[in-house]
Amino acid sequence: MEIRLLKFQEVDFDKYYSLVSNDDIMAQITERAFLYNEAKISFQKLITRNEKHDEFGSYKIFDYLDETFVGLGHLTLSEDKSSEAEIGYMLLPEYWGQGYGSATAKKLVEMAKPLDIKFLTAIIDPENIPSRKILSNLGFISQKVCEIDGLPGEILSKNL
């Protein structure tokens, strides 16, 4: 499974909205889909973060062979510690269980290695067994299950 990652740009709102407006996807993230105006605000924040760094940000995930849009992956630098970053991804449901999550997580970890990142985290819904398996296979270890912004969360981490 090969994927290609390209940073989200202003013209990509429709792709972003196809993810965050999907109830099935967002059930694992915020427990509800974003309304259009919420998505617009969130997307502008994403674009602003993307402009801050060349290497860090939110990326469109494409299937390498046919250029099909599959989802979003992010590598986000910690605002507090420059040697720490977070990875995450969300995929359109029709691509679940096909290896895109594993390929994306692996590529994000590889992207972090040459950037002086020493510690990666990933936050998942504790009931998202497929994501836990993907991250565990990459060497992430569960640090704690807790409430994050009022929602159930599990923090996994990996030393690079």
Roughly how many Å apart are the termini?
23 Å
Query: CATH superfamily, called what?
Result: Gcn5-related N-acetyltransferase (GNAT)
CATH architecture: 3-Layer(aba) Sandwich
**Rg estimate, integer Å:** 15 Å
Regions with little confidence, pLDDT below 50 for 5+ residues: none
What is the highest CATH level, the class?
Alpha Beta
Domains, number: 1
What's the average pLDDT? 95
Order of helices and strands: EHHHEEEHEHEE
The helicity comes to 25-40%
Strand order of the largest sheet: 1-2-3-4-5-7-6
Count of distinct strands: 7
- The best one-word shape is globular
Main β-sheet: number of strands, strand sense, barrel status? 7 strands, mixed
Strand content: 25-35%
- Structural category is alpha+beta
CATH topology: Aminopeptidase
Enumerate how many helices there are, as a single number.
5
